[in-house]
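Q: My labmate handed me this sequence with no annotations at all. I'd like to see what the chain might look like in three dimensions before we decide whether it's worth expressing. Could you predict it?
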Amino acid sequence: MVTALQGVKMMQPNGENNGDEVAEGPLADQTHLRVLDIRERRPVGHEMHALTEPGLHIVRARVHSSSTHEIGDHLEVFSDGIGPISIVRFRDLTNQANNSLLDAVKESITENPDEHLSFFNRAQNLSLKMHAFQLLPGVGKSTAQSWVQIRGANGWVDLDEVSKGLGVDAITLLAERYVKELENPAEVPSLLELLVRSEN
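A: Here is what I predict for the chain of 200 residues:
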């Protein structure tokens, strides 16, 4: 199977490219980037922090010119002027990238809603004491139980219907959970791994 990044050189930790390595692992199937920030990189050039799609990984890439890309742009991985991508830790994001992250995740959910809608339609008990809805910020046991009753047997058609039915912003709730998991990859269970990255 040929992947979107097959044959692309991966950026090494020191920023150099090693011609022997090709994209593998979690970045192999990533097709798009949402620009979170572009900063000057010393001694020359610029570096972009971005969110990948479809897997929602935080990455960095060298860019040849900061004037061709802006914060919020949605680009193909192979866009002109973008070098190889590599994973970047949440704590290494610039302040601007950190501030842009939640909105970028929300935009990604809005444009690719199906896998995210499936969470609301299929969420079940994780244990005798905890329901999957309780993974979302601010949702306790009684709220989770009422959401299950509201959902009923048929579920919802789209995320707008979820938001109206539950009286919450479903996209923001999921986005906040995903950002929490990006900040702390040890967060378990991981909705990013279960919903977004399971097929990517």
